[in-house]
Design goal:
alpha/beta; Leucine-rich repeat, LRR (right-handed beta-alpha superhelix); nine-stranded mixed sheet; 9 helices; binds 2-acetamido-2-deoxy-beta-D-glucopyranose; Leu-rich_rpt; signal; leucine-rich repeat; Leu-rich_rpt_typical-subtyp
């Protein structure tokens, strides 16, 4: 009843509104003007206004005065004709009426960006004989853009920004043939399909900027763009464009910014042609299927500042001439099949370098000393290659370095490495796992420094020794990964002094003793709040990132809070204080020698999504209250000595019977061992609807987490896999 009446209220208000506007319109048209704005112009402006369902308060101003030159958002020329409409960010909703603004014969600038306008873009707006600059970006306009009649006379349009709307269909082509003043088109972030057009420069010699990125363009790059002798910026990344880079493209020699990132381009990079683009400052061909070598001619691109070629099939060695691109700031060649020594390039002539990513290739040899002369370097990622050797003192010259990843190579002498790196005061992320095979964890109590380190990963090294005491000085540590080593001894009791630690993976070691209560006092794991932002520093987590998003920064607060103690030799019971770790999303205690009962308090871990207690010697029952852990999506208590009924409410109806295997005394309607009806009655089944809601929530959370934090669709099904830190 209530909703019905409010609905009809709204409807009647709407009618009043419409009526009011029509009245104003009539009044304004027929009261004779003593001002400069013509009747006609007012009429068309008010027609535009009436087409809106939400005018953001414009009517109040436009109604007040008969001189439309005095209206908000309107600028008139000296002779009183409306020349400019500037209505960005006004909260306008509704459609752009077709015979309104396009009829303003002197209108040259129209800016309707950042509103909520919907429906079609009236084609006359593009083809008026007056509009020079048209910006309707960031709206919800949709439908196809009509092809305009090319036999119509020259149009003055210079700038068209239709980006970030919902346009679909083929992009007009002949429309541009007669526009001799065309300067810039931004159509990015829509859903255009079909070939990218190449007719922009048939009449216009001043065409400079073309942005078609984030659409669904497909097919080859057609010839014609080479005619654009003034083209400075061409962005067509994030489409489905295939084929090779056409020779014609390299005739657009004014290009400074060229990106075809994340498409399906193939073939090799033509050495003789690339040098024609000697004005290039930014080149992004990452995430395609380009093959062959990086041509040595690249050294002739003297202005080049950013080179992104990540995730292709490039092979061969680094071209030595790269050392001549003295303006280089960023080189990203990650994830190719490059081989040979990094020392092929003399880095000492590249003083501006800030970011280098050579990860996931097949480079061999040692780290060239010349790289250490790039004193402005903040990122250096060499992970997953076949490099060897020891770090030298010269790396101390990299005073600005924040992220260093050397993981999965064959570097040696971890003691030396730690002693050298500790003095790099700005180092926040250090990833050195997969090296130093069978060495000993440095225990030297005197090791200090690393005061700003946020993430430390030394996994998969077969390191022996204890968790060293110098870790207790890493006061800013948020992420600690020591997985897959041979570490022994207990978890140190100072662990709770690492006040920011929220991601701990010490699985697959030989750690002994009881799980210390200190671990249940970790502030970041206890806090249910989304971390206090007292430390505003961003966390440069070098996750595998999509496209050349390789240099994404993320805050540590977006990391899942995790404790993984699996596959060690821990003994005793699970401390009942475990219930304090309310922020935990994932708890893994599997493959240890834990005994006694599962503490009831575990049901306080309301955020838990993964709980693995399998392969221990736990006894007693599964606490029935666990069925109120609404986000639990993975649960495993297999191979213990549990007994009694398996809860059947909440998430428990979703877990496979393998979650409970190897506990002969457990019973459930789903297991071999059925419960007596009295036992089963203990748990009350929840309604299916509630269950579905929870599942949807959990799935949504996972997708959000992975897309938002990892930017890597490859790990989509695995919400918690951060163990690929490289
Ligand atoms: C209406 O116009 C008067 C004078 O022209 C002005 O003082 C007043 O602020 C205007 N009101 C609105 C809502 O623009
Ligand atoms: C349109 O207005 C927005 C917001 O003020 C501004 O960012 C944009 O540059 C304007 N467009 C043009 C073409 O000037
Ligand atoms: C294009 O314009 C010409 C002349 O202005 C006209 O003859 C023709 O019918 C138009 N074509 C379309 C499809 O509107
Ligand atoms: C739309 O593109 C034009 C040309 O590149 C630019 O001047 C304008 O600022 C852009 N609008 C917005 C809202 O960014
Ligand atoms: C085109 O518009 C998008 C926003 O819609 C913006 O991010 C991009 O920088 C613009 N491209 C150019 C070349 O200005
Ligand atoms: C695309 O458009 C949407 C909606 O306007 C906006 O939220 C988003 O930031 C845009 N993306 C890019 C890459 O410009
Ligand atoms: C590039 O331009 C030159 C002249 O500047 C011309 O001879 C050549 O045919 C053009 N190449 C292509 C592929 O259009
Ligand atoms: C690196 O080289 C090895 C042996 O030559 C080969 O098996 C491997 O596939 C190569 N890896 C890449 C990423 O090219
Ligand atoms: C590089 O660092 C030096 C100081 O070591 C500084 O003078 C220079 O401006 C920096 N260059 C860039 C491009 O940031
Ligand atoms: C270290 O980081 C701080 C804070 O970000 C910055 O102000 C300082 O310049 C950096 N030091 C070097 C040598 O880059
Ligand atoms: C790593 O280096 C060690 C000693 O430097 C060598 O014995 C070993 O074969 C290397 N391993 C690989 C996989 O190259
Ligand atoms: C490892 O480094 C330390 C300190 O730099 C040095 O004393 C030691 O000789 C090195 N060990 C090996 C095997 O090279």
């Amino acid at each position: 009843m209530k909703s019905h009446s409010s609905c009809s209220n709204k409807a009647s208000r709407f009618h009043m509104d419409l009526f009011g506007r029509a009245l104003v319109l009539l009044l304004l048209i027929f009261i004779s003007p003593v001002d400069s704005c013509t009747k006609q112009e007012r009429h068309y402006l008010l027609r535009f206004l009436t087409g809106l369902s939400q005018d953001g308060g414009l009517a109040a101003s436009w109604r007040n005065n008969t001189d439309c030159c005095a209206w908000e958002g309107i600028i008139c020329g000296e002779d009183g004709a409306v020349t400019e409409l500037s209505l960005a960010s006004r909260g306008l909703q509704g459609g752009i009426s077709s015979s309104s603004l396009s009829k303003l014969t002197r209108l040259s600038r129209l800016n309707l960006s950042f509103n909520l306008l919907s429906g079609l873009l009236p084609p006359e707006l593009i083809s008026t004989s007056s509009i020079v600059i048209l910006d309707v970006s960031f709206n919800r306009l949709d439908g196809e853009l009509q092809e305009l009649n090319s036999s119509s006379p020259d149009r003055p349009l210079q700038v068209l920004n239709i980006s970030s709307n919902l346009f679909t269909g083929a992009f007009p082509s002949t429309t541009w043939e007669k526009m001799s003043n065309l300067f810039a088109i931004n159509a990015s972030n829509n859903s255009f399909t079909g070939h990218i057009p190449s007719t922009f420069c048939i009449s216009s010699s001043s065409f400079s900027v073309l942005d078609l990125s984030y659409n669904q363009f497909s097919g080859n790059i057609p010839p014609g763009i080479g005619k654009c002798s003034s083209l400075r910026m061409l962005r067509a990344g994030q489409n489905n464009i295939v084929g090779t880079l056409p020779n014609d493209l390299f005739n657009a020699t004014s290009l400074e910014y060229l990106s075809f990132a994340n498409n399906g381009l193939q073939g090799t990079i033509n050495a003789a042609l690339i040098i024609k683009l000697s004005n290039l400052v930014f080149l992004d061909l990452g995430w395609n299927r380009l093959s062959g070598k990086i041509p040595n001619f690249i050294g002739q691109l003297k202005r080049l500042e950013e080179l992104h070629m990540c995730s292709n099939n490039l092979s061969g060695e680094l071209p030595p001439s790269l050392g001549k691109c003295t303006n280089l700031v960023t080189i990203n060649l990650r994830n190719n099949k490059l081989t040979g020594e990094l020392a092929k390039v003399n880095f000492s002539n590249l003083p501006n370098l800030k970011k280098i990513d050579f990860g996931l290739n097949n480079f061999t040899g040692t780290i060239p000393e010349s790289i250490y002369s790039c004193s402005n370097l903040t990122w250096l990622r060499l992970s997953s290659n076949r490099l060897h050797g020891q770090l030298t003192k010269n790396i101390e010259n990299l005073k600005s370095i924040t992220t260093l990843s050397l993981s999965y190579n064959n570097f040696t002498n971890i003691t030396n490495t730690v002693h050298i790196l500790k003095s790099l005061r700005n180092l926040t992320v250090l990833l050195i796992g997969g090296n130093f095979k069978n060495e000993a964890m440095p225990q030297d109590e005197a090791i200090d420094g690393f005061e700003n380190i946020l993430a430390l990963a030394i996994e998969q090294c077969a390191l022996s020794g204890r968790i060293p005491n110098w870790f207790s000085k890493l006061r800013n540590l948020q992420v600690l990964v020591l997985r897959n080593n041979l570490l022994n001894g207990p978890i140190p009791t100072w662990i709770n002094s690492l006040k920011l630690l929220s991601y701990v993976d010490i699985s697959n070691n030989r750690l002994i003793g009881e799980i210390p209560v200190a671990l249940m006092e970790m502030p970041m794991l206890k806090s249910d709040k989304v971390a206090d932002n007292s430390d505003p520093r961003t966390f440069p987590l070098p996750v595998y990132a999509g496209a050349c998003l390789c240099f994404q920064y993320h805050t540590a607060t977006s990391l899942p809070k995790m404790l993984n103690l699996g596959n060690n030799k821990f003994t005793g019971g699970i401390p009942k204080e475990i219930g304090e770790l309310k922020a935990l999303l994932s708890l893994n205690l599997s493959f240890n020698n834990l005994n006694r009962e599962i503490p009831q308090s575990i049901n306080k871990l309301k955020n838990l999504m993964v709980l693995d207690l399998s392969h221990n010697h736990l006894t007693g029952t599964i606490p029935p209250a666990l069925d109120n852990l609404h986000f639990l999506s993975k649960f495993n208590v297999s191979y213990n000595d549990l007994e009694g009924p398996v809860p059947i409410g909440g998430q428990f109806s979703t877990f496979p019977s393998s979650s409970f295997a190897g506990n002969p005394k457990l019973c459930s309607p789903m297991l071999l061992h059925r419960c007596y009806s009295a036992e089963a009655a203990l748990s009350s089944p929840n309604s299916t609807k509630e269950y579905i809601n929870k599942v949807v929530f959990v799935i949504a959370f996972c997708v959000f987490f992975v897309v938002g934090v990892l930017y890597d669709q490859m790990v989509l099904p695995r919400c918690f896999l951060l163990n690929q830190l490289r």
